[in-house]
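Duplicate of #3305? Posting structure anyway:
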């Protein structure tokens, strides 16, 4: 699913109005019907307190109030209004509401006029103050109202976008900004870019997309560099196995991972690689780790380093279709040298670099130029910071990510609540599977194994990264059914990979 920029969304609204065709007031009505249905389903028989502003987001709120009132819900509407006139459609909806229920509305022009104490604790607050038309941080009356709402214990549902939140600007991170902290956000047609950033996404709560029928052909034709990964897309990418196939059809992966005291990294990455469907796997380990890997992962072949404890050499790379390197490696001088020599000797093998592989790159930046085109780097934010420097805010982080991928012509999987895969041309795919239980030791090693396994099976780097991240998160979500966010371990995630594949279908 595309994530369009605010101006593209405004153009999309206008295009739909002109070409469906539909009047803007009818489009608002359709949007409001969707919001009201969702509210009634989620909060059956609850009472609602709706804060509305003067723009079209407020218009939505006024229309939602009327629909809820028609269904005999108890609704209070608070119109927060400075001297600004209501938008044309908000004004029509205000008249319609007053005709059906003249007593539900109060208008406030000063903060003292809102009696927040009157709002029942079990009432659902609907936030329809500002939507995508926000042009500057909130101040004065609006700021005070938003601050006061955020102090209330009530659940808050935002229409389209939490009021005060910009769809994609770095103004979101300005100190002292007042932004609604929603429990749920019902977003029209597509999520907004700011939902995916830690700094601004924390305001959004659970978000749901409401398909209000905006013109699909217009969306299809829009240039776009931000996407949300969907199950449908992953299903299309999954390679089906022909009946008459054998292990030779599914590639041979090499995993270079583990060192003295960190053999678990090799075990976890190997197990994940095997569960991702690789035909053959060779684990390259220090001499000392031979017995460990053979007994922990009997399905894997081994390549034994002459060093007892660390990675210092590598087998003939031409045997392998994909290589994953980094988990638990350490950064000893000989390891760095071996890593550099390996980069010099890469042919056409697909490559994943993680953990200490990334740390070696950030401490030896000249090696970045040796990373083959289309390699996949899988940093967590700290590892990424070591590679690109400290960013000012999340939008800056995203632009550094794009610049880095374009400069070195690599894919980067930047891990987080919404892991983003950035391609060498700067296109970003945001992943929505996964949960905080996956923030656990070895979880990243498992992802390295999965992506390496998919690459070996001839998934393109873009496919392997996007599908691998999705599967990893899905397996984590399935593991959460048996475990808690605290108890989940990397092996729990791996044990659910099979079920994750089945869920894709
Ligand atoms: N245009 C359409 O076809 C549709 C629009 N819809 C709704 O319309 C919303 C966008 O409506 P608008 O463009 O009217 O925008 P808003 O409802 O977000 O309101 C913007 C208004 O507030 C003013 N404003 C901006 N920032 C301010 C600030 N910090 N303090 C005080 N005033 C400020 C603007 O000048 C403008 O008058 C969407 O988020 C969505 O909720 C929906 O009804 C679906 C259809
Ligand atoms: K809103």
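Output from current build:
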């Amino acid at each position: 699913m595309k994530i369009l920029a605010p101006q593209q969304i405004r153009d999309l609204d206008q295009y739909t109005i002109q070409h469906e065709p539909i009047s803007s007031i009818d489009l608002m009505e359709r949007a409001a019907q969707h919001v009201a249905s969702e509210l009634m389903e989620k909060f059956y028989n609850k009472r609602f307190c709706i804060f509305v502003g003067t723009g079209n987001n407020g218009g939505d709120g006024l229309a939602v109030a009327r629909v809820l009132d028609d269904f005999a819900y108890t609704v209070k509407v608070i119109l927060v209004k400075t001297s600004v006139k209501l938008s044309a459609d908000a004004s029509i909806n205000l008249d319609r509401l007053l005709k059906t229920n003249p007593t539900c509305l109060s208008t406030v022009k000063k903060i003292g006029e809102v009696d927040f104490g009157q709002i029942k604790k079990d009432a659902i607050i609907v936030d329809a103050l500002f939507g995508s038309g926000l042009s500057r941080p909130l101040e004065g009356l609006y700021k005070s109202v938003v601050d006061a709402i955020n102090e209330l214990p009530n659940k808050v549902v935002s229409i389209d976008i939490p009021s005060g939140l910009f769809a994609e600007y770095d103004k979101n991170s300005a100190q002292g900004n007042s932004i609604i902290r929603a429990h749920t956000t019902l977003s029209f047609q597509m999520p907004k870019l700011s939902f995916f950033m830690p700094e601004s996404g924390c305001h959004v709560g659970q978000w749901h997309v409401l398909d209000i029928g905006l013109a699909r052909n217009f969306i299809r034709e829009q240039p776009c560099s931000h996407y949300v990964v969907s199950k449908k897309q992953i299903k299309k990418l999954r390679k089906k196995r022909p009946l008459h196939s054998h292990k030779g059809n599914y590639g041979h992966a090499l995993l270079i991972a583990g060192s003295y005291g960190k053999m678990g990294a090799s075990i976890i990455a190997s197990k994940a690689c095997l569960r991702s469907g690789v035909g053959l796997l060779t684990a390259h380990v220090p001499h000392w780790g031979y017995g460990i890997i053979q007994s922990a992962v009997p399905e894997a072949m081994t390549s034994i380093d002459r060093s007892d404890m660390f990675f210092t050499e590598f087998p003939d790379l031409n045997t392998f279709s994909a290589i994953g390197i980094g988990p638990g490696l350490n950064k000893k001088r000989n390891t760095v040298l071996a890593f550099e020599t390996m980069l010099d000797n890469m042919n056409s093998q697909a490559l994943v670099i993680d953990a200490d592989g990334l740390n070696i790159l950030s401490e030896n930046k000249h090696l970045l130029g040796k990373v083959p085109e289309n390699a996949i780097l899988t940093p967590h934010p700290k590892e990424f910071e070591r590679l690109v420097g400290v960013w000012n805010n999340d939008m800056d982080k995203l632009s550094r990510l794009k610049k880095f991928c374009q400069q070195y012509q690599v894919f980067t999987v930047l891990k987080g609540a919404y892991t983003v895969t950035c391609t060498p041309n700067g296109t970003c795919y945001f992943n929505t599977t996964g949960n905080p239980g996956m923030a656990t030791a070895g979880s990243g090693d498992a992802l390295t194994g999965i992506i390496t396994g998919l690459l070996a099976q001839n998934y393109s780097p873009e496919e392997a990264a996007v599908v691998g991240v999705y599967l990893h998160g899905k397996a984590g979500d399935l593991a959460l059914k048996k475990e808690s966010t605290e108890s989940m371990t990397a092996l729990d995630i791996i044990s659910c990979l099979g079920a994750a594949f089945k869920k894709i279908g």
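Confirmed duplicate; merging threads. The pocket of NAX (ligand 1) is lined by residues 13, 24, 27-28, 31, 53, 55-58, 60, 87, 130-136, 138, 142, 159-160, 188 (CB under 6 Å). The radius of gyration is 26 Å.
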